[in-house]
Design goal:
By secondary structure, the chain is mainly alpha-helical. 41% of the residues lie in helices and 5% in strands. The chain has a domain at 82-121. The structure holds zinc ion.
């Protein structure tokens, strides 16, 4: 008896859960509702984390907005701009000082609200 035969013999001792004569049936379930066909968009809607709609959504995302500007504003509202102070906080060997004025740490609030150079521009 070789190894292949012993594997086949061992496999025959297991009972098959369904009749081997029947057709296979599959069902997609997204959330609580079964689907007839798989849709990646429906799956994405079920899987992605949801947040409450923010007050500023209509100010940032509107028809005619420049996508690059909307994206930057959106990232800024979550305080996720790649500023020097964040880089330094992550351990990168960069100066945390503002690239424009070199007087204060480069944070979102400094860049957008208090930096003299930004105010001048
Ligand atoms: Zn500055």
């Amino acid at each position: 008896m070789d190894i292949t035969t012993s594997k086949i013999t061992a496999g025959t001792t297991l009972t098959v859960p369904l009749s081997p004569d029947g057709d296979d049936v599959f069902e997609w379930v997204a959330g609580d509702s079964p689907l007839r066909v798989f849709r990646s968009s429906t799956t994405w809607e079920v899987l992605r984390p949801r947040q409450e709609k923010q007050d500023w959504v209509d100010i940032i995302w509107f028809k005619g907005a420049v996508p690059k500007h909307s994206f930057t504003m959106w990232v800024m509202n979550y305080d996720r701009l790649p500023t020097r102070s964040r880089f330094a906080g992550w351990g990168m060997m960069v100066s945390a000082k503002c690239a424009f004025c070199s007087r204060y740490d480069e944070t979102r609030d400094h860049l957008m609200l208090t930096c003299e150079y930004s105010q001048y521009v």
